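Private note to self, pasted from the team thread so I don't lose it. Backbone tokens:
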């Protein structure tokens, strides 16, 4: 099975979505943009952010709005497709109220679907753990779950890119991956 799993991660406003879009355009496949954001017509600033992303995408790309059911979307894609999932942090935020056991089931289902995917998959993820520990439990839950999600997808993906300060770094070439035993 010839397919590629790519992870693009980095801080806010670093250009990670633009880099992921560039990679998707280079794939030569039918690009399906998987938008995980939920729209809110009462939040004009959020709507403006979404619109900026929409305007940047080529008109021949298909857009799917998938705020929750990421596994099913991965399972349905074909080898002719390139899924661009933007973003994991937003998807996680949509599921943040899940109990730990339910979250673990959801996470394992997505990881399984990702490993079995026949399409190319480019995933965009935020880096939320570079700052202070959040003062509230829900913030700590988000940060910890996102960190582990990105780490586990990073173990599957090749390449893994870090976009920061206006530069793209290929971590797969520059770094040394941790083994699964070290990730506990």
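Design output:
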């Amino acid at each position: 099975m010839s397919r590629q799993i790519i992870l693009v991660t980095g801080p806010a406003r670093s250009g990670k979505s633009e880099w992921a879009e560039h990679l998707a355009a280079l794939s030569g496949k039918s690009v399906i943009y998987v938008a995980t954001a939920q729209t809110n017509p009462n939040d004009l600033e959020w709507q403006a952010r979404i619109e900026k992303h929409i305007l940047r995408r080529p008109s021949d790309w298909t857009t799917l709005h998938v705020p929750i059911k990421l596994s099913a979307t991965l399972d349905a894609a074909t080898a002719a497709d390139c899924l661009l999932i933007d973003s994991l942090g937003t998807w996680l935020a949509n599921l943040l109220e899940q109990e730990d056991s339910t979250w673990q089931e959801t996470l394992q289902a997505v990881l399984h679907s990702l490993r079995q995917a026949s399409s190319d998959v480019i995933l965009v993820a935020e880096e939320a753990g570079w700052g202070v520990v959040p003062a509230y439990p829900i913030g700590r839950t988000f940060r910890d779950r996102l960190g582990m999600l990105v780490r586990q997808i990073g173990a599957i993906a090749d390449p893994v890119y870090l976009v920061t300060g206006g530069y793209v770094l290929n971590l797969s070439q520059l770094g040394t991956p941790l083994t699964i035993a070290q990730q506990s």
